Amino acid sequence: MIWLSIYKKLLQFRLYIGLALVAITIALAFTRYDGWFWFSLIMAFIAIGSHVFFGPIRFIQEAIQEGDMETAKKYINQVYFPRLLFKPVRQGFYMLQSNMAMANKDFESAESLMNKSIKSKSKTLGSAGEGSSYLQLGMIAAQNGKMTEAKKNLRIALDKGLGDKETKATAYLQLAGLEMQSRKFGPANNYFKKAKALNPQTRELKDQIAQMEKYIHRRG
Description:
It is a single chain. It is elongated, with a radius of gyration of 23 Å. The longest helix has 21 residues, at 34-54. The protein is 79% helix and 0% strand. The mean pLDDT is 86. It is built from 12 helices and no strands.
């Protein structure tokens, strides 16, 4: 546990450690300690490079999971050059920012950031990761009142593939709700049946299915 704590501290402060090593390297340049000069230079490059190319994504995720948005913002502000992040990291970084914007009901920013995430797509995350991005983009568009765009993105999400039945059921229920709002009850019922057939187990989805089923029966 002690080593893990030390490792996390090194990750947390690696940018500052790297800058300190740069200062030491400059000082060593005026001495005869060539071995220490090159060691310090390499370690400075590793410390700064790992921060620039990987960012503090792990700490952002942990802060969001704990509901500590102030800490999450602090780490996000430490990413000075998002475009230099490796593609999978950049995609996740923009997605996390979009999640935070959506939580704050800043749907315009959430949509813009999610589009950046999709443009940074990486083969590492696979089509399911891309599908999840489009699912979120569809849900943002729905919250923003862009119904046509929401339906388009939700269909793309299903075409790209989603990771599990709970996520697929979420997409189908969103589409069913949107079609109901447009008074297109045939497509709405079709999407609802697909969601119900997946038999999702999360409480929220089960409640949504029960409420939608009551509404459909009343109409029938």
